[in-house]
Design goal:
Glycerol-3-phosphate (1)-acyltransferase, 9 strands
Length: 282
């Protein structure tokens, strides 16, 4: 080949370019089509809160959050499917993958959450967590544990299921991290029932671990906008057999971790085969 002459790269086939452009356009249209209804559902839920009494009971707040989250997930075409018996009270312990976990559990059943304190300051989400009776925990303040435990105990006494993510952070779903057992003590003191469960996601196009799971140093807004462009998302929750909260909290934490790992593995198998017993949202 003569000096200065280089072989030109092969041109992309028109059909491939056309398909790529169509897919990109379809994704952008899905974002636009879902964002407006989602924001409308979010603000409508906040407006509906005015129908509650000035100092609502936790059960009333949990029901409001349940209806609001179900409405919000419908707006963005996120389905929720569950296996197992929905708990009517007590503590629910689960792995933690994404901000979607909160919406999915709330859509599945009326409940309240133990949440990191930073969430209270998030736009829109923060107001929902504050108004729904969430128990906020300052994770890096060890002196805050006693106050948080009292509030968790009060929430359990209200008879509304309390959801706890004892990993203390979100992950990519490959494994279940070690459980922090501090927040289990109120359940032991109250003699509450604890239901282990696991959550996972199915995504028609893309990678669940990067595009649904939200972890590490991922930025929230770009992640949400990308998620809105996905063809379909399904949250899958499996509830295990409940057990009585008793004994040493650290030993109880190990038992619960083993149960959640089993459910997590079962869930991943069910995701592969599409076996889910009940669809909460369609």
């Amino acid at each position: 080949m003569a000096a200065g002459c280089r072989k030109r790269p092969a041109a992309a086939r028109p059909g491939a370019v056309s398909r790529g452009m169509k897919e990109s356009l379809a994704k952008q249209l899905r974002k636009v089509r879902r964002l407006t209804p989602f924001l409308a559902a979010a603000f409508y839920g906040l407006w509906r809160h005015r129908n509650l009494p000035p100092d609502p009971a936790r059960a009333e707040s949990a029901q409001w959050l349940h209806e609001s989250c179900a409405r919000g997930l419908r707006a963005i075409d996120v389905a929720v499917s569950v296996q197992g018996q929905l708990p009517a009270s007590g503590l629910i312990v689960s792995n933690h993958l994404s901000y979607l976990d909160i919406l999915a559990y709330s859509a599945a059943l009326p409940c309240v959450f133990v949440s990191k304190a930073e969430v209270a300051d998030w736009p829109i989400f923060g107001r929902y967590t504050r108004w729904s009776g969430s128990v906020f925990v300052r994770r890096h303040d060890r002196t805050d544990a006693a106050r948080a435990n009292v509030n968790v105990g009060n929430a359990l006494k209200s008879g509304v299921p309390v959801v706890l993510f004892p990993e203390g952070t979100t992950t990519d779903g490959e494994r279940v991290l070690r459980f922090h057992s501090t927040m289990l003590q109120p359940a032991i003191d109250a003699g509450a029932v604890i239901t282990p469960c696991a959550i996972g996601y199915e995504l028609e196009d893309g990678n669940v671990d990067r595009e649904v799971c939200w972890w590490g140093d991922m930025t929230l807004l770009p992640h949400v906008l990308n998620l809105l462009g996905k063809k379909s998302v399904r949250a899958c929750i499996v509830f295990g057999e409940p057990l009585a909260a008793s004994g040493d909290r650290k030993e109880l934490g190990k038992i619960l971790h083993a149960r959640v790992v089993e459910l997590h593995d079962e869930l991943r198998g069910n995701e592969m085969s599409g076996k889910f017993a009940m669809s909460v949202q369609k």
